[in-house]
Amino acid sequence: MTLVAGIDSSTQSCKVVIRDAETGKLVRQGRASHPEGTEVHPDAWWAALQEAIEQAGGLDDVAAASVAGQQHGMVVLDENGEVVRPALLWNDTRSAGAAADLIQELGGGEKWADAVGIVPVASFTLTKLRWLARNEPENAARVAAVCLPHDWLTWKLTGSTNIDDIKTDRSDASGTLYWSAKTNEYRLDLLELGFGRRIKVPEVLGPTGIAGHLPNGAPLGPGAGDNAAAALGTGAGTGDVIVSIGTSGTVFVSSEVSPNDPTGTVAGFADTTGRFLPIVVTLNAARVLDAAGKLLGVDHAELSRLALSAPAGADGLVLIPYLEGERTPNKPDATGAVHGLTLKTSDPAHLARAAVEGMLCALADGLDALVANGATANRIVLVGGGARSEAVRKIAPELFGLPVLVPPPGEYVADGAARQAAWVALGGAEPPAWSAEQPETYEATPVPLIRQQYAAARDAVVDRAR
């Protein structure tokens, strides 16, 4: 049996899966937590990875490995490969002003969409580099190289300390604002625009490029951003729109065509196969359910039961889920809001229903944007921690208006990384076809009223100073 390892270094934790390269069968796995916050020293990721590897029985017997990770995080290194300052993560919104400035300086969102397929918001790496240059000039002066979380971990696994050896892949590079998925080239002029000077960036590898080797000589694949890895891990086909409900919410689909959305709603990312991955991302997803449960003093199972006991549309009660600001729409200083509170709707069931519907409506807006930019949507593949909620599974088709498939719970990002590693180990024109367990299918008659009342409340939300 040829074994491969897939690693998912997410916002919240690190997961390692060891799978049979030919069949995808899970052999063993491990997991370790990451610290909370939007600013984390990369050493914490490395420590968690070591713990997860140990739990998974080590990597000495694997034929290849690959790392997937949270996207956009700014890891800055000095000329000796030392971390200059803690990484700013994708969900750190302090660079919102920098994003607005970059849009203006290049001449508008259309210019950015033409250049790199995405429009600056606070999530993207270049906006964080601009923030660093403006707010921490002494740290900025020490920076010799910039990379992303999965790049840095892959590099650490090789044992190299030379910043010239850092590699990345198309999917993660496409979320930086200084690499174009359409042209497969860096835009170092945009890096210079954002940071004030040019610094070293990782070499971008193809789908089966070798980023280095483990101590046992096994090759390391190019890795991936978490969403691209999830697409590979689920085995989604043409017209399968993946909706992932984790810390953030994501709506994405593999495509032959790169979108060009000057509004910035749809980002023109790359996938792991050489194609494109149009994507819409929300900052607030499963945490909306966490917050609602905390507010009501119930666990997730009871929150789900309460939500399903209330009518569709919650009798007009609407929850706008911008609990940590929002990326889509771009409202970094917005807060959550509740509309339609009456004596009739002032009970736990209505609030639970409004929380589930509000979170899903934000994601349904993302689906609308993908379709408006040319994506084909035949069905929804629902994954992530939030998909474990019965209420989410049953209410989702009412809002998306499509069949909703829910695969068995799994570590789809780590599985995608493992499948990429198997592709590296076994070769071939396409990644190996792994058999998957049959998903559950949920269907329901669409309820347009829910989207309509959500839209009215959403459009009333404005940014406000914190």
Automatic annotation (TrEMBL):
Gene3D superfamilies: 3.30.420.40. Its EC number is 2.7.1.17. Keywords: ATP-binding, Carbohydrate metabolism, Kinase, Nucleotide-binding, Transferase, Xylose metabolism. The record marks D8 as: Important for activity. It catalyses: D-xylulose + ATP = D-xylulose 5-phosphate + ADP + H(+). It holds the Pfam family FGGY_N. PROSITE patterns: FGGY_KINASES_1, FGGY_KINASES_2. Substrate binds at Q71, H72. NCBIfam families: XylB (TIGR01312). Belongs to the FGGY kinase family. PANTHER family: SUGAR KINASE, XYLULOSE KINASE. This is Xylulose kinase. It comes from Paractinoplanes deccanensis. The lineage of its organism: Bacteria, Bacillati, Actinomycetota, Actinomycetes, Micromonosporales. The gene is xylB.
